[in-house]
Specification:
The chain contains 20 helices and 13 strands. By secondary structure, the protein is an alpha/beta fold.
Length: 397
Amino acid sequence: MRIADFCWAGAGPFCTKLFSDFGAQVLKIESSTRVDPVRAGGPHKDGIAGINRSGYFASRNSGKRSVTLDLKTDQGRRLALRLIAKSDVVTNNFGPGVMQRLGLGYDEARQVKPDIIHLSMPMYGQDGPRAALLGVGMTISAVTGLLWMTAYGSDDPVGPGTHYPDHVANPYHAAFAILAALRHRRKTGRGMRIDLAQVESTVNFMGPAIVEFECTGREPRQVGNRSLSDAPHNLFRCAGDDSWCAIAVQDDRQWLALAAAMGRADLHADVSLRSAAQRLARLETVEQAVAAWTAQRSVADVVQRLQEAGVPAAPVARPDDLLLRDEHLAARGYWQPVDHPEVGVTTFTSPPYLVDGERVKLERPPLMGEHTDQVLREVLGCSDGEIGQLREQGILR
């Protein structure tokens, strides 16, 4: 399968990366005249900036082939259409109308490939009363209410930033839509136009909260790391530098086990704390008692004691904990070393699923324009002379 990928930034490239990691040929069509902003963004290996040195870009574009075309030229657009004619899927996450203005919209694409699958994924879709509004993952988190829902309180709308719109809801919904369209084409021989509004996709990810409001008229409460049904259920600071553990008491037996592990006979004997409803009513008192105990102990000691007592507990892992000290991720081959011509060997995260029981082997991300000549030669049948002439004319940049 071949994808002509015009996506840039976050959600779109993450979607097409799912396909490149599993063996699809993904042609990342880009241009040095308007560089993918993620190429320019950090973190950069060794702190040295460069369009081929961004870890952020690398993590979203593994295994792709970079083809540079100046789409503002007629010849660049014609080459793009020729690539579309040789592809199964076309993807973009530009604002509404951008691909049409470039002459690369669905109508133009199906003229050269009648059964093409054409995915667009702007924030509010291609049409509708808010289609002209543009935004990225953080914007989507705000306008959908996700920032509000995940805040610790009404005056603290910190939320998850770009993570859920850009790395969960939108790329996976888009990938699923492409898979469904491919199956539809296999059964019917017909292509498909997919208009994925990222706001709608993210709202779908928030289904339980939406259903609760529709059924009850009540907005979900902001509880942060707490729970509406269990207590204590939160993160607690431990001894050490910015060291925290998660504790989630899920039934009354676990509460008694926690009180015993803390050596708090008074809490164990307090019948007014025997049920979750009672503990929720006195939540500040309960959490203060747990916090005072965890603050005097290392996170490893807290977690070991509580797990041995049957109380759900885990360390809050920092990046270096996951990369260097998590035995489970290491045993599963989750971290993969990938050699890159500019930054050397870098550690990448594998897809969290297996194929036929095997871990997917990642290929490195492309250098800007690295595969232009190869793709024009192998996919479009261009001669070296033609490629040289296109480069002299400034088309391949």
